[in-house]
Amino acid sequence: MKKIAVFTSGGDSPGMNACIRAVVRAACHYNIEVVGIRRGYKGMINDDFVPMNAKSVSYILHKGGTILGSARSDEFRTAAGRKKAYTNLKKHGIEGIVAIGGDGTFTGAHVFMQEYPDIAIVGTPGTIDNDLFGTDFTIGYDTAINTAMEAIDKIKDTADSHDRLFFVEVMGRDVGFIATRAGIAAGAKAILIPESKTNIDELVNLLLDNAAKKKMSNIVVVAEGDDEGGAMDIAKKVKAKTNIFDIRVTILGHMQRGGSPSCMDRVLASRVGVAAVTALKEGKKGIMLGQTHRSISETPFEKAIKHNQKMSAELEVLAKILAY
Ligand code: F6P
Fold first, then answer.
1. Can you give the pTM of this predicted structure?
2. 174 CA distance to ligand 1 centroid (A)?
């Protein structure tokens, strides 16, 4: 393999830069030419390619976001868009690609490779949501749960001081991985996630039990994709059933995607970045490089993306046991 490209796509996540750096430096190590594609599939279609070398990725390891930019491309969902992308890749002599992203990124890569099998694509899991199968954790998840946990800790201080009930909404699209770990770590009274049906009556009873113990201040963590709605909806539903709580709602939002990556995210990103280039060099394609039980693992794109990553039942039980 003589020339490869790297891009980041979908929602950015802390550690993407560490992964770009690892890909570029591994390519240099193997004497493979490397270019960056700006703004994911958009840049592939618009011919936005930049040459990269070991020096161009200096001093980015600790930075949040992605130096290559990211986007969600509707045009790449069309056959015409993918044809434009292919033409540009061929023009630049690209033989292999490392795609850093999540579900949408790998879905696009899978479709593209079926149409244009002469371009090898491998992926690394870059998303705060942790919703990919074939890796214990995704790049950015650790930083995001720490960001959420620290924010909830702060909310807890004011909740306690004012005897208030807070509903805190965290990201995660249609999964509850961020909510579960951040909620456990911050001692939430309840954690509402899409994976388990939310019962408003049960939640109200739990809160009333606490009120009977003279505990009015509580934190309920709500995953944005919960089946009963976001934090605002759930707060309204609780208020409609009992008016004894002084309720506030906080939506953490995009702050969960930013910030300097944690040590775990930097190391994970570095490992899978190097593994991705090694895989391309060995002629592999159509796989995501992840980390499973401390070792590098390979998972076909179709398997990584189909919601095969399951919530741990043990963590759900644990959260209930520990809430008082
Ligand atoms: O996939 C990452 C994520 O941050 C999700 O948690 C969230 O639902 C979504 O992206 C938000 O996307 P956007 O930044 O396009 O609004």
1. 0.97
2. 10
